[in-house]
Structures are given as C-alpha cells and as structure tokens.
Design a protein that fits this description.
single chain; about 80 residues; mainly alpha; 3 helices; about 65% helix
Amino acid sequence: MSTTSYKRAYSLPFTFDDVLKLIKTFSIEDKLRLEKELEKETLVYRVQKLSERIKTNDLTMDDVVAEVTEYRKKRDAK
C-alpha cells in the first residue's frame, strides 16, 4: 500500500475543521490507515468507558455453590 504525499500549506494552529478538510482529501487507503491509528490511540479511553458501564459482579463462589445446591434440591424433590 503506497502513501500519497499531500502538498498543502496550512497555518498553525490547526483547527478541527482544518484537519477534517485535509483528511477529506486523503485516498481511501490513507483514511483506513488513519482509522487504524486512531483506534490504537483511543483504545485505552474506550476500554475505560466500557469498564465504567459494566456492572461489577459481587457473587462469590460460595454464593454460586449455594444457588446450585438449592436448585438441585428443588429439582430432585419433583
């Protein structure tokens, strides 16, 4: 996969709109490369956000064993 060189002059500081305009000029291959890089850059953030949304499981192994035992007693009583 070859990378195209983009020769455009932009003044600093870049605004988000400037970057977006530049990205829109990229080839699809370069956009896909950029997407992969952004995924790598934001991985930790996305994992933290997902972790915040997941409820913690407070069950212990003793709780599970007690539930299974109770279920089996009820099942076997039938």
